[in-house]
């Protein structure tokens, strides 16, 4: 069974006032040695004094930095990934191995099919969803 570990890569506080990307990199090395399969990289939401700058792809650089520092660890990227082509670019450029689209999925449960369309892919519908009830 794969083990995913979600981490807030930074508290998004003033430098020296909280958890920072360098702390995450040190901790990720430990987690990797302990056998986690995927490090799911998010950020913020831990302190009321944080100063987030929420934009498209605002967390991708954090995943990319961890991936660059620890190339053998599988890293997921999150953060307002709203287009299948962009998600694919994140993976193809090596910023992350996986992208998670939780917010987009909560807003539209058909987003997986939509992302497949962005990539000119038909995708595959599981058999149990193609059988109609009688």
CATH architectural name: Alpha-Beta Barrel
As laid out across the biggest beta sheet, the strand order is: 1-2-3-4
Query: Might you state the CATH topology name?
Result: TIM Barrel
Oligomer: single chain
Gyration radius (Cα, Å) is 17 Å
Beta-strand proportion: 5-15%
Shape designation? globular
What is the H-and-E element order?
Answer: EHEHEHEHH
How many β-strand stretches? 4
Secondary-structure-based class equals alpha/beta
**Annotated CATH homologous superfamily:** Aldolase class I
Give the helix proportion (percent range).
Answer: 25-40%
Low-confidence stretches: none
Give the total of domains.
Answer: 1
Major beta sheet summary: 4 strands, parallel
The CA-CA distance between the termini, in Å, is 36 Å
- The residue-averaged pLDDT reads 87
Counted by DSSP, the helix tally is 5
Q: Class, according to the CATH hierarchy? A: Alpha Beta
Question: How do the helices and strands line up, and which of them pair or pack?
Answer:
Elements: E1 4-8, H1 21-34, E2 38-42, H2 60-69, E3 74-77, H3 84-92, E4 98-99, H4 102-107, H5 111-118
Parallel strand pairs: 1-2, 2-3, 3-4
What's this model, at a glance?
With 134 residues, the protein is α/β, with parallel strands linked by helices. The protein is 35% helix and 12% strand.
Would you write up a description of this structure?
The chain is built from five helices and four strands, in the order E-H-E-H-E-H-E-H-H. Strand 1, helix 1 and strand 2 form a beta-alpha-beta unit. The chain is globular. The longest helix has 14 residues. The chain has a single domain, classed as Aldolase class I (TIM Barrel, Alpha-Beta Barrel). A four-stranded parallel β-sheet has the order 1-2-3-4, covered by helices on one side. The N and C termini lie far apart (36 Å). With 134 residues, the chain is α/β, with parallel strands linked by helices. Helix 1 crosses helix 2.
């Amino acid at each position: 069974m794969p083990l995913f570990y979600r981490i807030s890569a930074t508290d998004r506080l003033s430098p020296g006032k909280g958890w920072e990307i360098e702390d995450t990199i040190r901790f990720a090395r430990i987690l990797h040695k302990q056998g986690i399969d995927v490090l799911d990289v998010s950020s913020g939401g831990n302190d009321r004094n944080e100063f987030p700058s929420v934009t498209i792809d605002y967390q991708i650089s954090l995943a990319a930095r961890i991936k660059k520092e620890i190339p053998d660890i599988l890293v997921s990227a999150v953060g307002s990934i709203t287009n299948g082509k962009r998600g694919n670019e994140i993976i193809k450029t090596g910023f992350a191995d996986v992208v998670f689209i939780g917010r987009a999925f909560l807003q539209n449960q058909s987003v997986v099919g939509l992302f497949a369309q962005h990539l000119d892919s038909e995708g595959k519908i599981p058999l149990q969803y193609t059988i109609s009830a009688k």
